[in-house]
Amino acid sequence: MTLTKTDFKEYLLCHKSLWLKKNKPELYTPGEFSLFLEKILKDGDEVEAYVQKLFPEGILIEGSNPVLVTKTEELLADKGTLFQATFETTEGLFAKIDILKWNTDSEKWDIYEVKASTEIKSDLKHNHLKDVTFQTIVAEEVLGRDRVGESYIIYINKDYRLGETLDLTQLFVFENVTKAVESIREEVVEEMKEALKELDQTSISYQTCPCLYRTNGQRCDTFFFFNPDVPAYSVHHIVSGKKLVALLEMGVFAIEAIPEDFKLTAIQEKKVELVKSGQPMIDSQAIKEILEQLTFPIYFLDYETYASPIPLLRGYKANQAVVFQVSVHKLEADGTLEHFEYLAHDFADATQGLVTMLSNTVGPVGDIVVWYESFEKGRNKELAELHPELSEFFLGMNARVFDLMKVFTKYYADPAFGGSFSIKNVLPVMLPELTYKTLEIQNGTMALSEWEKTVNGNMTDERRKIIRENLLRYCELDTRAMVELYKILKAKVSV
Asked: CA–CA separation, 425 vs 418, rounded Å?
């Protein structure tokens, strides 16, 4: 059974999930963690292509895994710089080294691990140090420990902003992590041995997995396979740490099963009370007062953005979101509703065309309704910096922003929301007839992925047209949903 670096990341998160994926793939269903790993690989490939330019003498090794191993063995004799040098041990360890460089001073091979992040991360999902330690150990197994020298992590300089041209020497940070690798080497060696040992087992218990004791965001893809008694909205969404452990040890998974005398904070008690009541909790007076303060015309606004680890626009940093699409619904006091939209064709016109459309659409008077204001405000601030001639306009927009989501987080709670106040969770409860499920594009992640295809992909004009139409329908629904939620709130508090 082969153990790659990606496998090892999954093992560290949940050893049972990895076993199921490798030994019983028919029972394994990819989920959020798999998508997370796919994004890491995609971003990593993009960044590696730029880093390789800093090693002009480097040789890229390509081909199937057996070919990669064979070519690596052949090229090692030249003692140069190799991209994707590949090693496989007799025990089943497998590693592709981003950059393997012969150091003529030490007469050893130095290892460079490339990361599409702006820092070295050590959380459960990333753990960059264990990544490079894994690669180092595999290289030592094949080459000999005395033939492997320094270990480096290359990541993106968080303070770098794109100028007239991309300066790769300023974009990347090279950090020597040899001492850190050595400090955890024995720990990682034991974890790798345990991983191989577990993968070789013919069977495991399907009763629970380590993720049972973790919060919702730290779960493996097979959480519900191993923990079928845990409901989708569970005690994990209410408490964490010692409180979570205490409830789980009592066999309490459902929120409504939390004992009355279990110590909770006031906020936690309110969430539990909501679930146990099974009824919405609505502060009609507060909602009425808030909505009556809104000034017409009301602009309902939503942005779609695309981010890349490599800065895309002058003045932008790594992973800074580029707004490529906007939808605006304008509601007058007499009920008249107009819709305006913009969708960029490429990165070059992503903001210039968009800011022109907005400045011609959004007037100087009227509240601007969004869902989760920090996102739209952040984009407005960046657009003000990118287009100083319209700085006053965008900062003025921010002064008029009203976050409709806050009405639901503070004054309108429904157990059917499942503890989430995302518009994707609120809308099906409040207006089930207004759904994203009939759309080809159903969320922001799909939107940015599809838009990227129209910009960078090789496709027919007809296919590009279809995707653009799907994008427009999706973004239009985001603002239309806010309009209808506003109307239903007004109707409820006016009774």
From this structure: 8
Task: Tell me, rounded to whole angstroms, the distance of Cα 254 from its chain centroid.
Answer: 28
Positive/negative CA dihedral, 52, 53, 57, 61:
positive
Residue 234 bridge partners (DSSP): 254
Three-class SS state of 338:
strand
Task: Say which residues have a Cβ less than 8 Å from residue 392's Cβ, sequence separation at least 6.
Answer: none
Question: How would you class 130 by CB atoms within 10 Å of its CB: exposed for 0-12, middle for 13-18, buried for 19 or more?
Answer: buried
d(CA 61, CA 369): 52
| Long-range CB pairs of 140-149, under 8 A, 24+ apart, other chains included | 141/87, 141/89, 141/91, 141/93, 142/87, 142/88, 142/89, 143/76, 143/87, 143/109, 146/108, 147/108, 147/109, 148/108, 148/109, 148/111, 149/103, 149/106, 149/108, 149/109, 149/110, 149/111, 149/178
**Is the predicted pLDDT of residue 434 greater than 90, yes or no?**
yes
Cα-Cα-Cα-Cα dihedral sign, residues 455, 461, 467, 468: positive
Whether residue 188 is predicted with pLDDT greater than 80 in this model: the reply is: yes
Q: Give residue-wise pLDDT tens across range 246-278.
A: 999 999 999 999 999 999 999 999 999 999 999
Bridge-based pairing state of the strands 59-60 and 81-88: parallel
Residue 65 phi, psi dihedral angles, 5° rounding? -55, -45
Strand bridging mode 148-156 / 172-176? antiparallel
> What's 238's DSSP letter?
T
What's the average model confidence in pLDDT over 65-74? 97
